[in-house]
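[09:14] KT: can someone run the structure on this one? pasting the chain below
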Amino acid sequence: MYIICSDLEGIFVPEVWINVAEKTGIPELRRTTRDEPDYDKLMHYRMKILDEHGLKLHDIQEVIAQIRPLPGALDFIAWMKEKTQLIVVSDTFIQFADPLMKQLGRPTLFCHTLVMNETNRIVDYKLRQKDPKRKTVEALQSLTYQVIGMGDSYNDISMLKQADVGILFRPPQNVIDDFPQFPVTNDYEQLKEILITYI
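[09:31] RB: done, structure tokens below
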């Protein structure tokens, strides 16, 4: 039996940090896991920028509340749920994700947690575990599931490698060039064409 593990941002919703960058006018926050393979380095960079500009959790949550799913995402999720199980495995944070997951019909979400101080400033983050996307796939495989992994960025690659089937969805050219072993899809219909052969 196949089960799908999918990234969130870039697959079902726009990139949160790019939206934050546009709304705040801070271009440095456009940097994402599509650009930086080292997630810890990226998050400490983001926290430094937020601190320099005095931005707090509620400022980011206000931006996220305005984000809407990508065109076609809701229909695609409904299609997948008719065929199999979906787990969203994301490097977002529970403090960011709730309004997004509500719009998506609340598929199961595995993600991380932010640490705030008494002034609501983001001071740290806690991973659910190291390399959580790959380990999620491993755990499901230990339950004799076969796993289809879908992602678009460097932080998805270990998940795609571990999965029985790994698929890139609308990745940037640098990710395509670095990982040519994965099929590349550019819209939900192309994704369906691959998925239907398994589910």
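[09:33] KT: thanks! DSSP finds nine helices and seven strands in the chain.
[09:34] RB: yep, looked fine to me
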